[in-house]
């Protein structure tokens, strides 16, 4: 602390420690000139004031809002008197006691900062220690929502999910976890926020839909990581799940096939694609009386009865749903027969079967 008078100036160091070691320079100035004086401060550890001879147990209690709490303060040297100073549960000065207890039957004061103090016959004469309390509260509710219907997600698109955590404390120890099924996909912490009273938290996450996610559940979870002194495992509250359905365009496991058949044989071309909603199918091929098309809820087939040169050529199957389209090409050849040019004439589009519409 600096002090100035009309006779000079002083610097007072209260409780000297190693942080005060160094050079202190005083400058005296008037209209005629300037002079300076240097002081070198050194520190001898043996001359340090003893540590405060008070021990608090537990040192960092973790208390659920409204629960009881008890903390002991013990003097390691004989005190003249000691006690607890607090907004609730204060004990006043106790003489002839080696320890005092701070006890509250229901702790609801978010600002509680009890202090144990002691007066001693020898140094440090007087001292105090502060008690650090973590007072916590489970969230009143945890909910999850989406900016679009989750039963109509389209593969490849991003959706904004929002997790709402209501009335939780202290937010500094909160982790919001996002799950797809049992898989953790994202976490967010709030260690920078030192607010001690209950708050509402809103967290957003961008989710990219994939066909592998269809049928899975999305949840968000509010977890309080209160350290080793807190409850184990850390308490966690989950939202109700969102059941998701992902729509995706048809896809074939193979791009195309070349079919070689013997004249007169029965040849079947199978067209089956994976898609959601289930695809509708149609074909293009060279028309012939011995070709039949069939549709089922699992795909479509073209059957060539008694293959001949008129059946050689390209057969293309189209699989279509509300998201997109895919196609697969079959090239039909006759063994030991040259292609019949006439088979490439007279293309038609035949048949259209509609599979039952998907209901999310």
UniProtKB/TrEMBL annotation:
Question: What GO terms describe the biological role, i.e. biological process, of this protein?
Answer: cell-cell adhesion
One of the Pfam families matching this protein, by short name: Ig_3
Where in or outside the cell it occurs: the entry states:
Membrane
Q: Where is the Ig-like domain?
A: 139-223, 250-333
Q: How does the protein's chain sit in the membrane according to the entry? A: Single-pass type I membrane protein
Q: Name one GO molecular function term.
A: integrin binding
Indicate whether Repeat appears among the record's keywords: yes
Name of the protein in its database record: Ig-like domain-containing protein
Q: Give the species.
A: Lepisosteus oculatus (Spotted gar)
